[in-house]
């Protein structure tokens, strides 16, 4: 077992709402040279899965548990009594607590989104869950020019953007992360670098948006086809993988799209947001090299869910505008905000507040169907990159399926550590910590054979289980569908009618898991909201 000083540093990078194929090394046309360099020199996982939504993914990634066991089953909102608490459960142990107890210096630069209380420090804030250094937002999203709940430690940090007209959240997160890794400290470090990019609203600097002029002029249909071909050539998709039909709900062929210039501008802004994130990752990597820490730093990069097809305003405009933690009342110089996906609003500028829409999200998720919130492949597939220059990893592509619960045990194994029963939970409740359900993929990183495991998902009634090559999946209020993922990754050929025995077996396994981890049936959550006079939409938004 390596000594504390010799243990590897850990840099865990999370993108927000970025689709499966947006990176250059996964087939995209967006310029991501720094991430691509890590990917091509490291290990790329083509069948790695998140949980389909931001808060649950973060809860699972940081605790090694399924999100329902952490108290964050839907989003960071308190639905008690009867529903999820919306904050990290006291029994959860975060990676920061685990690694901190083993002698690591711990830091968060970026988004938290694991506390229902976003304005006043609580036991579920990062400062109280193992992070010595914290700079970022407690809430889930917001303006890149005037974000809500920006803190340094537990103190408000609004003065950062109020006093700097060039301030931009992605750059501020990158700057803070670079400072953290450059600190003169002999301890190994764990840095959770959680960008809000490219989550809506579409905000990017004008010159960076203009740099994509013409790149998306051919439209989402031709661009999906081009990405598909690059993914095949890159080895991200196995030979013969088809491209799913364009998403039928709400999407229209590019030839029939109105306001093509405005549509291009939306995607240009999204691309600029991704490239800005990539640039900041390059900044942190450069600082690692200057500090002589690059060789012994494990770097992981992934996204919290698939591309986001959400329309803005998210619900009635008046109600959405009142969400002060994510929607500013005005720009920094007092101009009113213009909210919504409307062609008379210019994407990217500070007073705008919009998303990039369903057809561009369909491009982001090439070649899959569905989006963020669903547990079909388009909602849960993430590019995972693992790079460790001095760790003896075998660069290449890993096709074995893993999910977020597997990251925690993998990092412990790579660091020569075991889960410590005395960490975190005993300080809070004195109860035994929940056992970690995941399996390490450390062997796969070094060219070994991956052990088989069964993967599970549930989010707002969308359910799935993957066992071997078969995946059983259903939409909220829908019927079970069965796919052979090894032969049909795009989920085009439903085998449920042909294999009722397998459907029944997998459905039973899924239910046993759901009972074990504390899944609250979606119907029960909806009932709670209806008793309050609220709708199903408000239950999941």
Keywords:
541 residues, Alkaline Phosphatase, subunit A, 15% strand
Give a structural overview:
With 541 residues, this protein is of the alpha/beta class. The chain has a single domain, classed as Alkaline Phosphatase, subunit A. The protein is built from 17 helices and 17 strands. Strands 1, 2, 3, 4, 5, 6, 7, 8, 11, 12 and 13 form an 11-stranded mixed β-sheet that branches. The protein has a 4-stranded antiparallel β-sheet with strand order 14-15-16-17, covered by helices on one side. Strand 15 (462-467) and strand 16 (470-474) form a beta hairpin. The longest helix is centred in the middle third of the chain and has 31 residues, at 260-290.
Q: Give the CATH architecture.
A: 3-Layer(aba) Sandwich
Number of domains: 1
Q: Name the poorly predicted regions.
A: none
Termini separation: 45 Å
In which range does the helix fraction lie?
A: 25-40%
The counted number of beta strands is 17
Choose one word for the global shape: globular
CATH class: Alpha Beta
CATH topology: Alkaline Phosphatase, subunit A
Number of helices: 17
Largest sheet: 11 strands, mixed
For the CA atoms, what is the radius of gyration?
22 Å
Strand content: 5-15%
Structural class: alpha/beta
**The CATH fourth-level homologous superfamily:** Alkaline Phosphatase, subunit A
Mean pLDDT: 95
